[in-house]
Design a protein that fits this description.
Shape: globular
Number of helices: 15
Helix content: 25-40%
Radius of gyration: 21 Å
Number of strands: 14
Largest sheet: 7 strands, mixed
CATH architecture of the largest domain: 3-Layer(aba) Sandwich
Strand content: 5-15%
Number of domains: 2
CATH topology of the largest domain: Aspartate Aminotransferase, domain 2
Strand order of the largest sheet: 4-10-9-8-7-5-6
CATH class of the largest domain: Alpha Beta
Order of helices and strands: HHEEEHHEHEEHEHEHHEEHHHEEHHEEH
């Protein structure tokens, strides 16, 4: 036992791997967010279903799930079999393969609203392709981003929730990010239709796209306010702008048809990420045929790995599993049940923690009674979850993300539910209550090794 009374685990091999990593990998881990993990980055060897095993031999209920995309859990047998079969046939041809067309048709059919799509490899690339299409379609340059959304690490869109001035002009969020890259980016508050309308009026005739994560996945994972997405649709139509839903996080976690399937509002373009291939590197842009087809009329869309046969084999297998009857109702029920039980535990322990479910995601926000949007989310106690809760939950065998999200997969069952709730109950009796009603803090520009920032932390 450690001095707090918690069960302890020996992570010496992970600690040693981290120290060795610092001699060869910048920051000691493959991304800056992982490098800032407490007590130090953990190193894992394998996963199966809802569980993951570290180099010290400890098994965890995995609510990180590759930062979201492992909607079928680790090493799902259907996806694994498809990938193995393709490995035997080759993974890269430098040309087209039948699977890229078959997978595209299947994906469009699953979405049900999009006419055409493009393959790419990461969410960051998908967003950049969507913006290029929007600018080509409109002949304009300005992009209005809704605050709280993370749209990749690219210089042109990297701006935290409060990284903008009164005029909506974005400010940089990273050291080394040139101010010139943000010349055409404006930021409006998520959920504020009048403010967004005023910004569009100020920029009248210059706006190419309205870019929004429909559920503000990195700053709350919230139900959009009533009429909000429909209001953005109307504003885009009024101003001749392209409406882009960034569904790299929300995507298949909301429904097989993403946010449109859940909320009924149709964008012009939408971006999707690794979840469509169960974690294999693949991404897509889908939407209106006349906009996507601009790649045949001057818009450059490149990428050696685009639509590669390994990725598209994984997409087809993933859609097979997710398309089965009852999959999404079961995911929704599991998320609601976990949220209800975690909320009850917090109440019994006397802690103020808002816990909610949205699709196959549960979000716990400490120190706030109710989260309706990013402003509420950013009032949360900034260290309670990452500094107080996560290290102790790790000691109880529960692997969690910073920022309060617990991702669920089709493979999480009653045992994983009960272990997570039991660990939460045990830990809450031993840690301080979260600080309540904190004013929203400005996001910190990263200098050197960054601390966690929920508004820009999608990538792992």
């Amino acid at each position: 036992m450690d001095p707090t009374g918690e069960a302890s685990r020996d992570w010496s091999r992970s600690a040693a791997a981290y120290e060795h990593g610092r001699r060869s990998v910048g920051g000691g881990a493959a991304t800056s967010v992982r490098a800032g993990w407490r007590p130090h980055p953990l190193f894992f060897t394998h996963g199966s279903g809802p569980r993951i095993v570290d180099v010290d031999g400890h098994s965890y209920v995995d609510h990180v799930l590759g930062w979201g995309p492992l909607l079928l859990g680790h090493a799902h047998p259907v996806v694994t079999a498809a990938a193995h079969a393709q490995l035997d046939r080759g993974v890269l041809f430098g040309s087209s393969s039948p699977a890229e067309v078959t997978a595209a048709r299947r994906f469009l059919a699953a979405l049900g609203w999009a006419e055409r799509m493009l393959w790419t490899n990461t969410g960051t690339e998908a967003v950049q392709i969507a913006l290029r299409l929007a600018r080509a379609h409109t002949g304009r340059d300005v992009v209005v981003k809704l605050g709280g959304g993370y749209h990749g690490w690219h210089d042109t869109v990297l701006a935290g929730y409060r990284d903008y001035g009164d005029d909506g002009v974005a400010r940089g969020h990273s050291a080394g990010q040139p101010a010139s890259a943000l010349t055409d980016l404006r930021v409006a508050r998520y959920g504020d239709l009048p403010g967004t309308a005023a910004l569009l009026e100020r920029e009248a005739g210059r706006v190419a796209a309205i870019l929004v994560d429909p559920t503000s996945s990195n700053t709350g994972s919230v139900e959009p306010p009533p009429g909000y997405l429909a209001g953005l649709r109307a504003l885009a139509d009024t101003h001749g702008a392209v409406l882009i839903f960034d569904e790299v996080v929300s995507g298949l976690r909301l429904s097989l048809a993403g946010a449109t399937g859940r909320f009924g509002v149709v964008p012009d373009l939408a971006t999707y990420g690794k979840a469509i291939g169960s974690g294999i590197a693949v991404a897509a842009v889908a939407g209106r045929g006349d906009v996507v087809d601009l790649v045949t009329r001057g818009v450059v869309h490149s990428g050696t790995f685009n639509g590669n046969p390994l990725a598209t084999a994984a997409v087809l297998a993933t859609l097979d599993v997710l398309g089965a009857d009852g999959v999404y109702p079961a995911l929704d029920r599991a998320a609601v049940a976990l949220a209800d039980d975690l909320r009850a535990v917090a109440v019994r322990a006397g802690h103020v923690v808002d816990v909610r479910a949205l699709g196959a995601t549960v979000v716990a926000t400490p120190g706030v009674e109710r989260v309706a949007g990013p402003d509420d989310f950013l009032r949360a106690d900034p260290t309670w979850w990452s500094h107080e809760l996560i290290p102790r939950m790790l000691a109880h065998g529960i692997y969690l993300l910073p920022g309060g999200r617990l991702f669920l997969s089709t493979e999480h069952g009653a045992a994983e539910h009960d272990e997570t709730v039991a660990a939460f109950a045990a830990v809450l009796t031993r840690i301080r209550p979260p600080v309540t009603a904190r004013p929203p803090s400005r996001t910190a520009t990263h200098r050197g090794r960054p601390t966690w920032d929920s508004s820009t932390g999608r990538s792992s």
